[in-house]
Queue: 3 jobs
Job 1
Amino acid sequence: MKRMRGMKRIGLIVLTVVMIFSVMVGTTACSKKKKNEQTGKEQSDNAELITLDVYSQTANWNGMQTGWYATLLKDKFNVQLNIINDLEGTYETLLEAGDLGDLIVWGDNGTQYKNAIELQLLYPWEEGDLCKTYGPAIWEKAQIALETNRKISGDGNIYGIGHGIASSKEDHQSFFYTWDIRYDLYKQLGYPEVKDLDDYLELMKKMKEICPTDENGNETYAVSLWPDWDGTMVMYVKAFATAYYGYDELAIGLYDPNTGDYYDELMEDGPYLKMLRFFNKLYQNDLLDPDSMTQTYDQMAEKVKAGGTFFSIFNYCGSSAYNTNEHIAANKMMLPLVPKEASPAVYGMSLLGGNRIWSIGANTEYPELCMDILNWLYTPEGAMSVWYGLKDLHWYYDDNGKTAFTELGQACNRDPQYDLGGVEWTSPETGIKYNLGASFTDGMLQLNNTTWVIDAINPESKEPYNKDRWSNMLGIARCDLEQDWFDWTGFDNIQDYMENGNYTIIPGTSYSEPKRSDEMELIWTQVMQAVADKYSWCAVYAKTDAEFDYQVKEMVRTCKQYGYDKILEWSREQAATRYKLQQEEN
């Protein structure tokens, strides 16, 4: 395949300017030369800073990468990243322009990814030995994942690599459906038993009675949602079924990995509609944030940080957001409480890699540089940087070779909003001093994808990348309240608590959704808009049970008119295909 480098760069730059309302101008660095460790090439810092356009379907950020990771990339690669997130119509616009950018992060390995391959918009990783030469950490350590991508891509070529690769075939990853609640309020209420969703609803009512307002004087709610990540279903409602039943999302429904059974989104009394009704019960009891249908992820997160919510099924918008240094010092924390009848999903460790693929654009002027950056992210230090910051500034290896946080790194770990303004970092490669600026979380790599799974073994420390499994972190209570949680649960860390309860492992497979016909794609789009954009939210916001039933009935009627049964048959076939692959590969 002939590479057409740079032919459509102007169109993409114009598009980016329109999308983020700014003109990105390259800047210059110091005049010192440095050697890139991966390529062995010297790169001059007085050269123009290279801007790479990164189209990420998983990013919440739009615009230039900022903060400490921007500093790291500038120092190490002489690049800055212009992130283009997946706003409505972005994919179609980029496709029409014939250029997806320099780097691409795919949300899944299905139709859109395969369309890009057919249109020759992705760079083959074996052309000119690109990956072998410039991506040795990938080529040497992740051959199974690369071959999985070849199989998924379907034309004999490798165009990328999946996320979350395991270093060995262990049992499962760490839990992130952790059912975090305001444990300080739970303790205040006397630790009431929570068996099922009815008990959970009653607990939320009692929490609001004793905590009606947040730290800013605003009304509190059990939970706050956001529509940014809605797809074929409302994301949080679908994920709630995954957290409760252990079923995984598949096409227009949910899939039981234990049996291969398939529950479509419109199935009467099925998991999606059951959870939709639960969220309507929250709304009818004034326990659902009324802004849930219109706010952004960031707006939701600010409410969580201010104590505006009582639970989150996800740790990243529960304990990770709420448990700041100030809250911990005040004995206020979000910690897990899983209903006894719940069986949260946890994803299996897989050498195959996940469905969020890293790719390089076919028209990039810098394929070697793009591969060099991806290779860095697959090294131990690069992987650690994504999660925890800069080596020796935020974390280090102790005298026993085990991973530990520095005092600054611990502060950032406990409070991701920690302000790095005034913090200096001296590059170990160039000796240049930088002022980092911004908060730790704003400075994190905003592409929202991983390379190794966090529970993979770091070959440098011989223990998992996951900080919750570091020997230097186990069993350390950060306050009296956390010690109370240790005593109440009988466990001194979250992962062991989750492991001791019910859970469902979702095995990794090489399954990927095939391309759908044009007719199927039209029906799919119409159904998705009816379910996720309109009727599901109307049902959530129904003021009475009768209104809820009416909205669900209208949703079913409308989708049936569009041809729902055709895509349901296709979805069931995909569930059977996935289950067969799962049985063969695990």
Job 2
Amino acid sequence: MQFKNELITVLAEESGLEESVFTPLMEIPPQPEMGDLALPCFRLAKEMRKAPALIAEDLKTKIEGKLPWLKKLDVVGGYLNFFYDPALYATAILRQSREEGFSPGSGIEGNGKTVLVEYSSPNIAKPFHVGHAFSTLVGEAIANLYEYRGYKVMRLNHLGDYGTQFGKLITAWKHWGDEKALAEDPITELNRVYVKFHQELAEHPELEDEGRRYFRLLEEKAPEEYALWELFREVSLEAFAKIYRRLNIEFDNMNGESFYSDQIPAVVDLLREKNLLVESEGAQVVDLEKYNLNPCLILKSDGATIYASRDIAAVYYRDREWDFYRNIYVVGLPQKNHFQQVFAVLKEAGFAKADQCIHVPFGTVRFADVAFSTRQGNVILLDDLLAESVSKTREIILANNPDMADSEVDRIAESVGVGAVRYTFLRNGRERDIIFSWDDMLDFEGDSAPYLQYTFARCSSIMRLAEADKIWPLDQVDLEAAGKLLTGQEEQAIFKLAAGFETAVLEALNAHEPSIMLRNISQLARAFNRFYHSSSILHADNEEIIKARLLLTETCRIYLQAGLQLAGIDVLDRM
């Protein structure tokens, strides 16, 4: 990062262009022999009124000799390729690593800015299934990224605890509820009656009207219906809390949809004052034709609220409460149109921060050809998935470590098994659907959390052995001398990935795409293991090489730890 920034500064000075012109253009060539960094000059042609190849030649002439660490410049077509002095580069990254400690790539640009991240948001009285995990784990990683760059982050769990489905649930409970079953396993019992409601609809369509009637009573806080709703909410929160504890996730605020219900009249008044409300078949809507969107329903024909009106009320509340810099919703891709409508209504209403409300969508989850539906009752519970992953991990650990103490096996299996599930949700672009494969998830040699955790444990083991041999920690550190001993292609590959970590963090944050950061540390782990298998670390030819390679190992360990922690995955010193 340091060399790249210095290079951009010199390019800007010598060309007369802004640094912001060069920053997005810089890229790492696909092969080391093509350089350490490259500047494609094609996008500069229009501004500089020259052919890309001529621009590259001109820039080469102007910056040659300006940077002591720049060993060579090479023009290939419209590309200007930069080659670092490997010893100076190694020294710079070692120094950066030691200065940053265990927070490499962190920043302070977020100081004084509050970012709200809404995620997880399960529906009360329904099972917490693997689909909810997508929002929960991606949202937590995004919150971590913002926090890492200095933002004040508020983690919000916007519970689905209101709406017509609760009228249906109350109906179902009154017809088929079993109080004994509710006491023994509340979520299973509530899900059973909810599924039965939809099964009975075909023969008894009058149930739909009954559900609407009970929801109206709930909105009016009728004692019996409100008491049932409170009970359903309480038992659901207890069940959710167990899952969040296992995932080590804590929320700053758990206001559900119900919290905003009494704030909707103010929203309706505001929209009416601005002449935005239009009557449509008895309902109140906002016309969004200018945005190429369907009208946004604010109030139903019977006066009942809808989640769009509650979401609008929530935005106004959140801005009053936290004066947010960004208000981020980690919610599934099918809700894209909903958020487009909500944000458009906010714009029409003159809300100044409408463009600071951001929907971060994600795909779906499935095992082979199984589809999930709460109404049909065929869901895979997240708790069951985690338990299965931990169980399978435990078998692998025991097979490889038959003499390990049970308590140690359990501790490692929990961290690795839960980490494997987390990584599966985070490793690819979030809008891609996930198809679970146990072989891929728990592959200690593949693109998996166990592989990353094992690599970190390997680095930790090396450092422990070095401590036992009194080689580490080093009394005196000559980084320049160490840099001269770490100029090989494999060592340089590790340094390049470490240097690229901050860029990966920033790109992941700006795109709300944790997979970008994880790709960096996954490649770093691969690079370190290639080095490990080809070069002796503790038994190298002389003590100076051993010390240099220990510095490299510690650098790798630091960056792996930072990346894993941002993803919410445990780091393990032993596996």
Job 3
Amino acid sequence: MTKNVLIIGAGPAGLTAAFELLERNSDFHPIVLEATDRIGGISCTINHNGNRIDIGGHRFFSKSDTVMDWWAARMPLQGAPAKDDKILGKTKPWAKDGPDPEKSDRMMLIRERISRIYYLRKFFDYPISMKPQTVLNLGLWRTFVAGLGYMKAQAIKRPEEKTLEDFMINRFGVPLYRMFFEDYTEKVWGAHPSKISADWGAQRIKGLSLSKAVLAALAKLLPGKKPQDLRQKSTETSLIEQFFYPKFGPGHLWECVADDVRAKGGEILMQHKVVKVHVENDRVVAVTTECNGEQRRIDCDVCISTMPIKDLIESMDAPEVPADVKRVAEGLPYRDFMTVGVLVNKMAIKNETNIPTLGNIVPDTWIYIQERDVRLCRLQIFNNWSPYMLRDPENTVWIGLEYMCAEGDALWNQSDEDFCKFAVHELASIGVIDEAEVIDTCRFKIQKAYPAYFGTYAEFDTVRNWLDKLGNLYCVGRNGQHRYNNQDHSMLTAMEAVSCITGTGGSRQALWLVNSEGEYHETKKSA
């Protein structure tokens, strides 16, 4: 008999699980329950007046062959661009042996990663590297102090890395930490790095150091440098130079996957918020959803959850949820996210690099805003992610501004109109745009976008161990595991869960180990 598998959430993890269940075993019928009207979770792409905006940028790269091949199978990869090709215009940005982006919608572009830090109204490499331009931008005295601090940190390391502050100082030294990490981290997370677990650094920048960043910068200057292998397995994640990117944004890939799931017989129920998870005899037997004010109970044989752990525990309709489990789950922190789209005729900052771009705008995909006088954390320039994100990429620049906040705080509660004015003013105040050049704006909010590593996070195993006792419940994805994973890690957790469910390998322990040790974890069955 066909078994119902309820999958909570239509983000990368949920949709990967649904697709893999249908690919591997016809005995399972996946039903995806999505609370919003958007496909892709925080990897969604929204169309605003013909211009597409991402909820945070998403580079498509992985050290997992399984994930890389999975993406390529869903969307064909364009041919690598020639050196003298422009991003758009008369010279086409694809090789003769690759599909033509003008004629194919379902395809991946190959992009060059260019991200910089904006600090002191100047550009610095990201990650920071001590090369001549850095010295000029910082000045001799700041550079001397930073270098001295770095050497001291390498000679006398903090013995225990309990906090993110410890983690960063050990790798960069106190002065560079103060300049480039301390304030920015607090702006992003709403907590000082001394209050955040070192686990965040171990997951996000575990192999990064100043020496590696400098060596990577020097390697680019060597004659006869070979093109970077697109799989980039030996490259530290923060130093990745090339990545894939769907022509119409990451959300388009997941919209295509959702179409494939439906075509294979799976169901995707939009605007179905899970309000109850019913548990009997240590198994999830059903969930209750709410859609347009009406509730519906759906029975299941298996449940895969990508919903925030805090919400999952709160929704549990179980004989008894231990008090400690409730307490820890309630104390798990999150950062909420807002993005503001700003369409301008042109930017005020000039392209002073030797990288050609359409309209000669700066070539960055991301710019990290280190300036202390604004709340803005980071901005994206969508022209450089994909010109097909814009209705008129030759005459306009489409910028995404990223703000981290807490649901219900002063920023969150501002009206869209007022907040857009605030964001535009901030962008103009640091010299990125001229307010007179603004054509259009929009704002979008995302709740619980980023699981955070403070509060009761240190006791998370209390919740995990109890959830693991529910024999047919599998927690996957970023929020499903309360881990700041990348998109590929979320997909790998889903694949691991499907292996467990279909009896093709996998284990609950391996499910929680994705991106927790060494290189990107990949199970034997999925390798």
